[in-house]
């Protein structure tokens, strides 16, 4: 797209992204990074804001004390911190409930098997660059067979009449 054909919002976004890259490159250690996004509503506009970058684990605070040292004064009030906790809790609950792998997990599997199945499917899907569905099609038959064998072995080891 030529510069003349770009909208004002596209030009603004490119400028914000360039500034974010430059600013973030100059930051080291723990702390927030600049992110570029859009406002919500009918006519979204590009914006930049500070946030912790979860893709850079070494930049994240590990304790409440570190967090308090890294955030601004307005974010240190008890009400603000409780708000952060609620937002984080709600986000974690939504993430867990909306897990795209959940529909493939058999509720009768032991918790450890369910957890490992999710992890293996997710890792295989990302590593092999295949869809969740393709990873499940490859992995789930093995889990089903292993669970059937485990249940069969448990049934055989139980004394008769129990």
Can you describe what's shown?
- It is a single chain.
- With 162 residues, the protein is mainly alpha-helical.
- Helix content is 56%, strand content 7%.
- The chain has five helices and two strands; from the N terminus they run αββαααα.
- The chain has helices spanning 8-26, 64-70, 78-97, 111-128, 132-157; strands spanning 33-38, 46-51.
- Strands 1-2 form a two-stranded antiparallel sheet.
- The protein is elongated, with a radius of gyration of 24 Å.
- The relative contact order is 0.06.
Write the layout of secondary structure elements.
Elements: H1 8-26, E1 33-38, E2 46-51, H2 64-70, H3 78-97, H4 111-128, H5 132-157
Antiparallel strand pairs: 1-2
Low-pLDDT segments? none
Strand content: 5-15%
Terminus-to-terminus distance: 74 Å
Count of beta strands = 2
Q: Provide the spatial order of strands within the biggest beta sheet.
A: 1-2
Instruction: Please state the structural category.
Output: mainly alpha
Q: In which range does the helix fraction lie?
A: 55-70%
Q: H/E series, N to C?
A: HEEHHHH
Tell me the domain tally. 2
Radius of gyration: 24 Å
Q: Name the average pLDDT.
A: 90
Main sheet record: 2 strands, antiparallel
Give the overall silhouette.
Answer: elongated
With helices defined by DSSP (H or I, 4 residues minimum), what is the helix count?
5
Summarize the structure.
The chain has 162 residues and is mainly alpha-helical. The protein has helices at residues 8-26, 64-70, 78-97, 111-128, 132-157, and strands at 33-38, 46-51. The chain has two domains: 8-75, no CATH class; 99-156, no CATH class.
